[in-house]
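## retry 2 of 3
previous attempt timed out at serialization; input unchanged, resubmitting
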Amino acid sequence: MSDWGDDPINGNAVQQFEPAEDDWSTFAQPTSEQASSSVSATHDLTDPAIQAARTNCDDAKKKLRAAQTALVAGEDALADAKGQTRVAELKLADVTDDEASKPWQIAAAEEDHAKKKRSQVRVAGSIDRLKHDVIEAEKANSEAIKILDAATKAAQTPTKESSEDETLVYGSADEFYREFLRNAYRRSIDGRQTIWDAKWWNYAEAVIRIDALWRSWETLRNDPSMGMSVWFRDHADHHMAVLMDEKGPFASAEDISENKCRKGQPLPYTTPPDGLFPDERLK
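## retry succeeded, writing output
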């Protein structure tokens, strides 16, 4: 009977795996720096919409890297599991063919082979989930880059010389939301069918959408006949429906009273950190 000794393969592949930097060439994704490389040097990098979009982009890139790491480690673990199963299979064949083997030795070899096979099946089953995680992370990363690109392009758009009619009523997206939007667009927020977060400024998509609502309102208010109708129809109703949707940007908001309001009350609001929304009338 052969002396196989200790099992030559251990089960620590996932914990020990650390991919080299070069391994990521097959997962190349545009970075936030590449996405904004076309932004002019004079463009205002303190714009809150850009800051929020950049943070969102960096977070998405980290999550993508983590998902890719998990997939590569999982594939490595699967290769190890297949090797362990093959070793157990050969052990079983050797013990079975040896006439000197006792029944308990054959049973032990059969159990070891079955255990290794079950482990291989479990690891193989996790690969599909890990691949799905990578696909979803790639989508989120691409979407974050698009949002950052849109924010930087919006900041690059040249503005006309201010006239009396073009003077801003509100100096920032925050002032617009605090003083006008949350009062004009009152809805019941129950945290289930309709969602909001009083700290809306923590969400890149929300900052960009509310910033767009503010700027479109400042433009359309100068049309005394159709301006507000167009603003509500084409801007407010569209963006607010997305923001309040249970699957929208506030889907992860805490289910607390500060994030809810009854019918007829202003939408939830928490003052943002100082300096996050500088007054553009002072530029």
